[in-house]
């Protein structure tokens, strides 16, 4: 066993012990989504309250103007009655006083006319304010309608770009999420070896009781959960089917599958990345969810390289060296393929490591059994990175515990946690 792997193998039980012994805290991605929903509701309620206050003030102003209008109308009525009285006096008065009475009448007519004009002006203002109040009421109705439409969209799954709807969030949280557990997903199209890898991470062999079924062609897009058979391990593994192609935007696929629920996602691939692989890597980074690019069945590919080498004319050499050279060649070519696949996306995806694994080696490693003659690839590094990320992301711990672990493991372990 290589020194690097020996160090990793010695520290893995300690990291797993830390995870088992620490309480699992709240998922930071889910907390961010819930805070976003809370802010949207507060802003909507605040705007509705502001419009209601404005409408209330407008109605008060209308009532005041209506009161003034009534006062002007009363004033006009009194003026009219006074004019009628003067008319009666004019008819009864002496001819000598006709000119004087006519003058007084004209003055009263002018007063009545002025009062009428003021009343008409007040009525016009009242109508304008009533229109403004109606406009405010209409605006308030529109806001209510917009809010109801937004809530309806949440219920129908029509979501804003990059964020899940509240209905999606609640549904997937209820469907997948378990308090005190780490939720680890393995995604990939049929034929990538997902079921075997899920069984390996759970420390059981294909065909064992409670094992995920293998050699079954996928015909559904339903995510399937597989609890860890060891009750001391706080892990739930999920099989996420991949379609290869997308009929919607990448963020819609990510949210519709509920992938924002998971604490980590392993992306299995064959010779190239599919559209769903790229969607997962891109949006998991947006949600700050760790991802791991894994090439399963790697021992089979290495063995094919060994057979090809031995078939060459005059092939000689130590079998162990031939196997080691084949292992290095496969890992180098596969990592180069991953790099090119990441660069093909527009924009290019973030460069990250590829892990080549063997199902049998990984199963024995999880069982803490001797590996025997099984080919060792990147199984220890993959499991160590998953455990370390899980511990750092959600375990309620002191950083002193990790520092003490690193100190005990020796200076060589420092490079593993860099």
Automatic annotation (TrEMBL):
Residue runs in coiled coils: 34-153
Keywords, alphabetical: Coiled coil, GTP-binding, Hydrolase, Nucleotide-binding, Signal
Keyword GTP-binding: yes
Limits of the IRG-type G domain: 180-379
Signal peptide: 1-21
GO terms for MF: GTP binding; hydrolase activity
Keyword Nucleotide-binding assigned: yes
Source domain of life: Eukaryota
InterPro entries: G_IRG_dom, Immunity-related_GTPase-like, IRG, P-loop_NTPase
Transmembrane segments: none
CC terms in the record's Gene Ontology section: membrane
PROSITE patterns in the cross-refs: G_IRG
Pfam families: IIGP (PF05049)
PANTHER family listed in its UniProt record: INTERFERON-INDUCIBLE GTPASE, INTERFERON-INDUCIBLE GTPASE 5
Protein family (similarity comment): Belongs to the TRAFAC class dynamin-like GTPase superfamily. IRG family.
Protein name: Interferon-inducible GTPase-domain-containing protein
């Amino acid at each position: 066993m290589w020194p690097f792997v020996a160090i990793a193998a010695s520290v893995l039980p300690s990291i797993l012990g830390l995870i088992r012994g620490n309480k699992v805290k709240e998922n930071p991605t889910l907390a961010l989504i819930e805070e976003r929903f809370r802010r949207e509701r507060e802003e909507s309620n605040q705007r509705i309250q502001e419009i209601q206050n404005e409408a209330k003030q407008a109605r008060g102003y209308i009532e005041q103007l209506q009161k003034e209008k009534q006062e002007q109308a009363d004033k006009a009525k009194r003026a009219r009655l006074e004019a009628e009285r003067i008319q009666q006096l004019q008819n009864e008065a002496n001819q000598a006083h006709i000119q004087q009475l006519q003058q007084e009448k004209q003055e009263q007519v002018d007063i009545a006319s002025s009062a009428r004009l003021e009343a008409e002006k007040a009525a016009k203002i009242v109508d304008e304010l009533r229109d403004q109040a109606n406009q405010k009421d209409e605006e308030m109705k529109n806001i209510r309608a917009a809010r109801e439409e937004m809530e309806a969209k949440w219920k129908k799954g029509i979501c804003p770009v990059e964020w899940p709807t509240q209905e999606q969030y609640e549904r997937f949280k209820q469907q997948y999420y378990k308090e005190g557990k780490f939720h680890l997903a393995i995604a990939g199209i049929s034929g990538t070896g997902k079921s075997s890898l899920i069984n390996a991470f759970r420390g059981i062999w294909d065909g064992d009781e409670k094992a995920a079924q293998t050699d079954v062609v996928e015909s559904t897009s339903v995510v399937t959960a597989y609890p860890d058979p060891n009750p001391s391990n706080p892990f739930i593994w999920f099989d996420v089917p991949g379609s290869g192609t997308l009929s919607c935007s990448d963020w819609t696929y990510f949210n519709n599958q509920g992938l924002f629920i998971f604490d980590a996602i392993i992306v299995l691939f064959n010779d190239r990345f599919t559209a769903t692989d790229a969607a997962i890597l891109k949006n998991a980074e947006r949600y700050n969810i760790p991802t791991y690019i894994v090439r399963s069945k790697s021992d089979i590919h290495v063995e094919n390289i060994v057979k090809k080498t031995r078939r060459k004319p005059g092939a000689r050499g130590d079998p162990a060296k031939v196997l080691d050279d084949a292992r290095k060649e496969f890992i180098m070519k596969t990592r180069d393929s991953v790099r090119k696949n990441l660069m093909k996306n527009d924009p290019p995806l973030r460069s990250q490591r590829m892990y080549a694994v063997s199902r049998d080696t990984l199963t024995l490693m999880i069982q803490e059994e001797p590996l025997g003659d099984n080919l060792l690839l990147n199984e220890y590094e993959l499991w160590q990175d998953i455990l370390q990320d899980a511990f750092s992301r959600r375990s309620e711990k002191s950083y002193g515990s990790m520092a003490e672990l690193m100190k005990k493991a020796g200076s060589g372990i420092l490079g593993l946690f860099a």
